[in-house]
């Protein structure tokens, strides 16, 4: 009897103190079968049936609208080693050259902006708007007009669907069209999100996805470039496999890269595609949990879709805290309280125009992104959070706000 109660106690302690991560990988079950198949057929080298199968799965998924009225999209998918590699190739396909300028949302992960520097171009950063936290169309247009007046028309616009929330697609696309500037859609965090019933990842002239370990689905590391034509996809695959010309020997007339996804990783991706919609539903359920939790805590605003045009996958659930209303409880206090309970949370992305490495880059906007950075917090959002995990999170947060 005593041994049993000790066992329960030990079990309780491990359960209650195991770390809750912000966003951990969540396997569906059949990933290993696809990987085993790769081993059984010795398709360990890059390329192979899983890569083609994974690309086909993504293509079908992105083309499937959630509204009858949404237009059918012609797209092609190239599976790559990372989302960053996909952005790098996107800028190369758009012929961005040293000395060119590329416009980029400031509030984002550095991987959105770094490829601009890889090709020798200069980033021009744009503030966010309050509704979607993404690129502000007003500041975007002002920036384009000013850059043109200064003598240089930007070569591309990189818009990001932050934390899964679609940016103001109609307005941003219209501005890109008006000034005839290519739109690169960074959909790394937004696989499964929709705008007007059409999937994110299909709105850019070129779009990218990420399958990094913390994203909505993972291949342990990987990404994809979404193109509008087969010719663009073929060119991306050519560049991603060392730019080998047609010849029996290795002949090169262009600089190539080693950016293709391996057949083993693509096997994980095929398994993950089977559970993608279920995992999006679970992330959205987490968001609903937080909505309920903060319903009566007036100092906290939870990041939500502005209206029914937008459906976010809620990759991460985020809050903004008004410290004047909360007796001094801000994001830092909440983060440290969660950390004490072995629960991970994280500040919002630090805007790129405030990063030391980009301090000299032009910036258009005011302080929307900066204020979000100072007052926001990302909460645990994985699709495999248990009800015990949610209970621990709730208890800690209620305690924080004396609720
Ligand atoms: C994760 C991420 C990327 C980069 O993807 P990787 O696959 O990690 O290279 C790019 N942009 C955004 C917004 C991201 O969150």
Biggest β-sheet description: 8 strands, mixed
Poorly predicted parts: none
Largest sheet: spatial strand order: 1-9-8-5-4-2-3-13
End-to-end Cα distance, whole Å, is: 38 Å
Ligands in the model, by name, code or SMILES, are: pyridoxal-5'-phosphate
Number of domains: 2
State the share of residues found in helices, binned by percent.
25-40%
- The CATH architecture term of the largest domain is 3-Layer(aba) Sandwich
Search tags:
Aspartate Aminotransferase, domain 1, Aspartate Aminotransferase, domain 2, 38% helix, 8-stranded mixed beta sheet, single chain, 3-stranded antiparallel beta sheet, 403 residues, binds pyridoxal-5'-phosphate, alpha/beta
Question: Mind explaining what this structure looks like?
Answer:
This protein is of the alpha/beta class and 403 residues long. It folds into two domains: 19-26 and 277-402, Aspartate Aminotransferase, domain 1; 31-274, Type I PLP-dependent aspartate aminotransferase-like (Major domain) (Aspartate Aminotransferase, domain 2), CATH 3.40.640.10. The protein is built from twelve helices and 14 strands. The chain has helices spanning 2-17, 31-40, 49-63, 83-93, 114-118, 137-149, 169-178, 230-240, 263-293, 331-340, 368-375, 387-400; strands at 76-80, 101-105, 122-126, 156-160, 182-186, 194-195, 198-199, 206-210, 223-227, 300-302, 310-311, 317-321, 363-364, 376-379. An eight-stranded mixed β-sheet has the order 1-9-8-5-4-2-3-13, with helices on both faces. Strands 7-6-11 form a three-stranded antiparallel β-sheet. The two termini are 38 Å apart. The mean pLDDT is 94. Bound molecules: pyridoxal-5'-phosphate.
């Amino acid at each position: 009897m005593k041994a049993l109660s000790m066992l329960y106690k030990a079990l309780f302690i491990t359960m209650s103190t195991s770390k809750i991560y912000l966003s951990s990988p969540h396997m569906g079950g059949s990933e290993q079968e696809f990987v085993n198949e790769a081993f059984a057929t010795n398709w360990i080298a890059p390329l192979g049936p899983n890569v083609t199968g994974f690309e086909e799965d993504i293509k079908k998924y992105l083309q499937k609208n959630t509204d009858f009225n949404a237009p059918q999209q012609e797209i092609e998918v190239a599976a790559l080693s990372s989302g960053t590699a996909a952005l790098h190739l996107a800028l190369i396909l758009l012929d961005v050259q040293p000395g060119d300028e590329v416009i980029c949302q400031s509030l984002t992960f550095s991987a959105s902006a770094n490829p601009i520097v890889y090709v020798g171009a200069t980033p021009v950063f744009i503030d966010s708007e309050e509704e979607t936290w993404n690129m502000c169309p007003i500041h975007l247009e002002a920036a384009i007009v000013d850059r043109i007046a200064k003598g240089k028309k930007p070569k591309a616009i990189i818009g990001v669907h932050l934390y899964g929330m679609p940016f103001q697609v109609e307005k941003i696309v219209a501005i890109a069209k008006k000034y005839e500037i290519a739109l690169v859609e960074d959909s790394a965090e937004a696989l499964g999100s929709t705008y007007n019933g059409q999937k994110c990842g299909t709105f850019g002239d070129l779009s990218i996805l990420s399958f990094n370990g913390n994203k909505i689905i993972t291949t342990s590391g990987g990404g994809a470039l979404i193109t509008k034509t087969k010719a663009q996809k073929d060119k991306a695959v050519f560049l991603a496999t060392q730019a080998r010309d047609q010849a029996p020997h290795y002949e090169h007339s262009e600089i190539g890269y080693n950016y293709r996804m391996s057949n083993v990783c693509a096997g994980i991706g095929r398994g993950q595609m089977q559970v993608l919609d279920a995992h999006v539903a679970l992330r959205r359920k987490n968001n609903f949990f937080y909505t309920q939790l903060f319903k009566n805590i007036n100092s906290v605003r939870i990041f939500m879709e502005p209206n029914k045009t937008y459906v976010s996958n809620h990759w991460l659930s985020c809050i903004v805290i008004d410290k004047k209303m909360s007796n001094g409880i801000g994001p830092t206090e909440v983060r440290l309280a969660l950390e004490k309970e072995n629960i991970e949370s994280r500040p919002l992305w630090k805007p790129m125009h405030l990063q030391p490495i980009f301090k000299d880059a032009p910036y258009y906007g005011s302080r929307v992104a900066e204020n979000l950075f100072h007052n926001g917090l990302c909460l645990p959002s994985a699709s495999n959070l248990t009800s015990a995990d949610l209970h621990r999170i709730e208890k800690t947060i209620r305690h924080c706000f004396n609720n």
